[in-house]
Amino acid sequence: MPGIAEHERQQEVLRLLEGTGRVSVPELAERLGVSVVTVRKDLDALERRRILRRVRGGAVAVRGADEGAFEMRVRYRVPEKQAIARAAAELVNDGDAIVLDCSTTCYHLAREIRDRGGLIVVTNGLRAAEVLSESDATVVMPGGTLRRSSWSLVGDIGEAFSGRGRVARGFFGVRSLSPELGLMELSAEETEAKRMLVSLCHEVYGLFDSSKVGRFALHPFVGSEHVTGLITDADASDELVGRWREVGVPVRRAAVSAEGAT
């Protein structure tokens, strides 16, 4: 891979980390066709974004308390997330005003709705905003502080929307969820941002692949009584669907298409 660009080098590093959990500087230099100095700069840049941890001679994947870097999460369960995004896109019509959070599933949803006309999209997700910049959507982003690991804006972002009315519906990824506590996150910063975005929405939809069920999370950002519906993949259990139905929340299970499974 002689002379490949910085972004492509870093994506290759992430791909290798995903497979092995560890990379070494000499092996990367040989594989990428660049100097060890260039490799060290790439690893340092990725560490600053909390995507990996530098160790002597190389780097290892981060296995910390955070929910994980966007670049790593967006690679997981892609067919399931795409199926969920396609199902959610059916709820978005031309001219709608909606909210998308910074989750990887909402990133896929942004890709699905690029052809809608006249959308107004409020999002704190930089990657979703980047996708929608290729459409005619009006993209509204709050102020705040850049959180590099999730490519999101967090902090005191509510002031930007005070007194400006509400939008039709919002779509939110989750770290975990339960009928008792609602939709939850691990990061306190992401939780506060999502609570603000939820407050803008008439309808709230939770989007999650079935691996999220039963995971550990700390902070609810919306209670079950305020959730309009949930969209997950076909592997979600009948028990999950039944528990949420008991609290009045319908769950749609989206099947992975043959194309998406390849």
TrEMBL record:
Cross-referenced SMART domains, in alphabetical order?
Answer: DeoRC, HTH_DEOR
Listed Pfam families: DeoRC (PF00455), HTH_DeoR (PF08220)
Domain (HTH deoR-type) spans 6-61
Q: Which UniProt keywords apply?
A: DNA-binding, Transcription, Transcription regulation
Entry GO MF terms: DNA binding; DNA-binding transcription factor activity
Query: What Gene3D superfamilies has UniProt attached to this entry?
Result: Winged helix-like DNA-binding domain superfamily/Winged helix DNA-binding domain (1.10.10.10)
Positions in coiled-coil regions: none
Q: Which PANTHER family match?
A: AGA OPERON TRANSCRIPTIONAL REPRESSOR-RELATED, HTH-TYPE TRANSCRIPTIONAL REGULATOR SRLR-RELATED
What name has this protein been given in UniProt? DeoR/GlpR transcriptional regulator
Q: Which organism is it from?
A: Streptomyces bathyalis
